Amino acid sequence: MTFIGSKTETAMLIFAKDHLGMGPVSEERSNATILQLVPFDSGRKCMGIFVQLPDGRARLYVKGASEILLGQCTEILRDPSRDLTTTSLTPENDETIKSLINNY
């Protein structure tokens, strides 16, 4: 699967394909039950979409300014190449991620 778009969007799609079991984008879009769209807002610097999961729960996908979204995080993925377990976001993790963002 090849993705076209900004570096951020393609990185998110590659992550979803490799670690969340996402199939082709066209299939995912046609199969998704959208509950609510949260349009981009320059004050929030993000946008989102709520989708219905197969088990009846809902999931919010958010895309936006890295530094803004990081400020809302309390947990990070431990090692997404192994599994999707999380750990608390420590000040050290926060600084490492901010450095990655700034150098990207």
TrEMBL record:
Its main location: membrane. Keywords: Magnesium. The keyword Magnesium applies. It holds the Pfam family Cation_ATPase. GO terms for molecular function: nucleotide binding; P-type calcium transporter activity. It is a multi-pass membrane protein. GO terms for biological process: intracellular calcium ion homeostasis. It comes from the Eukaryota. One of its GO terms (cellular component) is endomembrane system. It is found in: Endomembrane system. The keyword Magnesium applies. This is Uncharacterized protein. It comes from Neoarthrinium moseri.
